Amino acid sequence: MDFKVFFQLDARLLYMIESAFKSGAMDHVMLFFTRMGDFGFVWIATGIMLAAIPKYRKAGIYTLLALAAGAIVGNLVLKPLIARPRPFMELQGISNTLGMSFSYSFPSGHTTSSFAAAYMLTRCIGKSGALAYVPAAFIAFSRMYFFVHYPSDIIGGIITGTVCAHMVYEASKKSEEVKRSDHLQ
């Protein structure tokens, strides 16, 4: 299969984002969101805060577990396996405006953590937890805006984060069921 057309489309979408949205004011907004997602900090802090509240303890712990699973799968397995360079390293006329390291691009770690947390918060808390998808989407978009990820890296991050969170959620539910059945016997 020839991926050349796919990669050209990926790059073309980035240039379209730049031409449609790039401005000084938007730079500040996107920088806010991209920094919010650095190292999954906002999601880790959310998980810790929720874990400290008895009513939301399970949601907080599950969110932290989903973040850990996403980091392991995305950063330790997929990034080195796929080894895709970042857009600013490959595309002409693009500079590394965020001062990033030259780690691999696929999948987006910011997006993986954001969507892992948003999925878990939605499953555990419901509609109010689903509000986490708003900053998650802005964080993901900011990564394309700054040419540190291709659109396919973002899609990969959404899938990786969602699948990891779903697996953690299902495993946790099964573990709770086993504990309950053991307790009843």
TrEMBL record:
UniProt entry keywords in alphabetical sequence: Cell membrane, Hydrolase, Membrane, Transmembrane, Transmembrane helix
CC annotations in GO: plasma membrane
Example of a GO MF term: hydrolase activity
Stretches assigned to the Phosphatidic acid phosphatase type 2/haloperoxidase domain: 59-169
Keyword presence, Transmembrane helix: yes
Listed Gene3D superfamilies: Phosphatidic acid phosphatase type 2/haloperoxidase
Membrane topology of this protein: Multi-pass membrane protein
Transmembrane segments: 32-53, 59-78, 130-148
Compartments, as annotated in UniProt: Cell membrane
InterPro entries: PAP2/HPO, PAP2/HPO_sf
Record protein name field: Membrane-associated phospholipid phosphatase
